[in-house]
């Protein structure tokens, strides 16, 4: 009897917890604290949006949302002493920089924040409440919301999505679509991989051949075997962004509280630039923009002052466009063969007392870091910039280095023993963790199912707690080699981007994959309406 009673009691607890779980509002990323009440608030044509100079843009976006989604033409007012049926924004200096507090009572909706970013994120939550957690009557033209208080703030300050357009140019419409979904999910960094071996996608006015030649390739490797495929498309691919187009996209992102961090690869992944200006390469030989994927063979001759001036000129125009404090310089997968076989490079290394190619790379990287710092910027790069050996094709002796990476560098960890990230943190470097086995969106769902993506923790398990603040966040990377169409990209990005958004925002103690999958149904409705061709459920968990 005691056993039966215990089983019954346990069953009641499970059922009760499932009931509570199903009743909680369904929002991605899941908020820090949700306190529900018993009363309701109704939004109708009489509801007013209260604004001042600081909140005018956010109120306008909210007004457009209600008009587009519910056909409500809500009135706006700057009168601050309304008694009921209004939505208002208030300043609360005690809240975190990106945090907010959303309160819905029977009289009003109040969004408190320290700044406009917090108000913006509170507004995104309100939109999810209205779209997926409310009762809408199109006949009575009213929207009924439950009484609730939501206290919320992000877990990490760097919540990034990366798009590689060097391999396949997507264009402004798709970039804006991605920015919209990032904003809705409270992601705040768009990492834009604009150049690589297979294409140069940004206009540099001082060097027009970068787009005249470097933005075009005559064919592209395709096929089910991917990296080993002998099949070519036999069709040219091209495209780049003018500086005016980039300015438009940057403003679009800024309006959504997203910082765009440009990535200009150096000294490797540079074949498109070398095809445009052969004197940039170490071999000095003419070449074409590659039609096969993989790592390019030639690299920038970083011992040549003309090459270094070119890179500074490019960065000068990039910085004039992008207000981001952080500039990503890549630095990954540099093949050292040309440096090793070049007499002029070897002479330079002896003059500078650089014993290995890795010494040369770190020395070069630090010079770029100093240049960026002189302009009030900060350098970021993949974790090869520390001189570590991450690749089997590298000679271990070539990757030994006595050079110390510039102190203010941000290390973008993507590959290697996690102890390398721990070492970087202990040495004082800030780290964005993008471990490829958990965050690379070009991986198939059988290798990176949604559950594995959701399980990622940017803070390594064995990292001492005193270094946890050095892990500033994560990035998820949509590498472009095998996404020739927009649909290919959508399939790989969605729904996994929602998992990374929740990792970046939601406190670890609040994460729950079962709850996440339930709330994901709401996003799938949104994506369907926007013609985003996300991967169906039967594929995202297939092993």
Derived from helix and strand composition plus strand pairing, the structural class reads: alpha/beta
Q: Could you give a short account of the major beta sheet?
A: 8 strands, mixed
What is the CATH topology assignment of the largest domain? Answer: TIM Barrel
Q: What does the average pLDDT come to?
A: 93
Named at the architecture level, the CATH assignment of the largest domain is Alpha-Beta Barrel
By CATH reckoning, the class of the largest domain would read Alpha Beta
| Measured distance between first and last alpha carbons | 42 Å
CATH superfamily caption of the largest domain? Glycosidases
Number of strands: 22
Estimated radius of gyration: 26 Å
Shape: elongated
Q: Helical residue percent?
A: 25-40%
Helix count?
A: 18
User: What kind of assembly state do the chains in view correspond to?
Assistant: single chain
Number of domains: 2
Beta-strand content: 15-25%
Catalytic activity: Hydrolysis of terminal non-reducing N-acetyl-D-hexosamine residues in N-acetyl-beta-D-hexosaminides
Keywords: Glycosidase, Hydrolase, Signal
GO cellular component, one term: membrane
GO biological process, one term: carbohydrate metabolic process
């Amino acid at each position: 009897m005691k056993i039966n009673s215990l089983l019954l009691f346990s069953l009641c607890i499970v059922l009760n917890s499932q009931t509570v779980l199903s009743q909680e509002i369904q929002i991605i990323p899941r908020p820090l604290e949700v306190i529900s009440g018993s009363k309701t608030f109704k939004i109708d044509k009489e509801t007013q949006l209260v604004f001042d100079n600081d909140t005018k843009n956010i109120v306008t976006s909210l007004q457009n949302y209600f008009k587009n989604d519910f056909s409500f033409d809500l009135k706006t007012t700057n009168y601050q002493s309304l008694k009921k049926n209004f939505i208002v924004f208030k300043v609360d200096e005690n809240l975190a920089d990106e945090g907010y507090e959303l309160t819905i009572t029977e009289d009003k909706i109040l969004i408190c924040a320290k700044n406009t970013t917090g108000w913006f994120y509170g507004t995104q939550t309100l939109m999810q409440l209205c779209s997926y957690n409310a009762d809408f009557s199109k006949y009575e033209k009213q929207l009924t919301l439950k009484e609730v208080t939501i206290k919320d703030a992000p877990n990490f300050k760097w919540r990034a999505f990366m798009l590689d357009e060097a391999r396949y140019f997507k264009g402004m419409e798709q970039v804006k679509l991605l920015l919209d979904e990032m904003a809705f999910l409270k992601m705040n960094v768009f990492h834009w991989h604009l150049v690589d071996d297979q294409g140069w996608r940004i206009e540099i006015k001082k060097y027009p051949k970068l787009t005249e030649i470097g933005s075009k390739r005559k064919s592209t490797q395709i096929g089910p075997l991917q990296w080993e495929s002998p099949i070519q498309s036999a069709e040219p691919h091209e495209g780049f962004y003018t500086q005016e187009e980039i300015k438009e996209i940057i403003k679009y992102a800024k309006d959504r509280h997203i910082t765009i961090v440009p990535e200009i690869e150096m000294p490797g992944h540079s074949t498109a630039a070398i095809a445009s200006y052969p004197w940039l390469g170490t071999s000095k030989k003419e070449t074409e923009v590659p039609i096969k994927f993989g790592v390019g063979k030639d690299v920038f001759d970083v011992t040549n002052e003309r090459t270094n001036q070119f890179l500074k000129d490019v960065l000068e125009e990039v910085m004039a466009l992008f207000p981001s404090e952080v500039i990503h310089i890549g630095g990954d997968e540099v093949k050292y063969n040309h440096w090793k076989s070049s007499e002029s490079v070897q002479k330079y290394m002896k003059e500078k007392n650089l014993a290995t190619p890795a010494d040369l790379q770190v020395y070069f990287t630090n010079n770029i870091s100093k240049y960026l710092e002189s302009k009030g910027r900060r350098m970021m790069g993949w974790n090869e910039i520390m001189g570590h050996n991450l690749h089997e094709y590298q000679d271990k002796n070539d990757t030994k280095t006595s050079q110390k990476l510039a102190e203010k560098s941000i290390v973008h960890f993507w590959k290697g023993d996690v102890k390398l990230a721990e070492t970087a943190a202990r040495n004082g470097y800030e780290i964005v963790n993008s471990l490829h086995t958990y965050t690379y969106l070009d991986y198939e769902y059988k290798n990176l199912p949604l559950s594995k993506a959701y399980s990622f923790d940017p803070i390594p398990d064995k990292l001492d707690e005193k270094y946890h603040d050095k892990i500033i966040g994560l990035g998820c990377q949509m590498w472009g080699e095998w996404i020739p169409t927009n649909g290919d990209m959508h399939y790989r990005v969605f729904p996994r981007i929602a998992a990374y958004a929740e990792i970046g925002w939601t406190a670890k103690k609040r994460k729950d994959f079962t709850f996440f999958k339930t709330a994901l149904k709401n996003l799938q409705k949104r994506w369907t309406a926007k013609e985003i061709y996300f991967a169906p459920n039967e594929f995202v968990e297939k092993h």
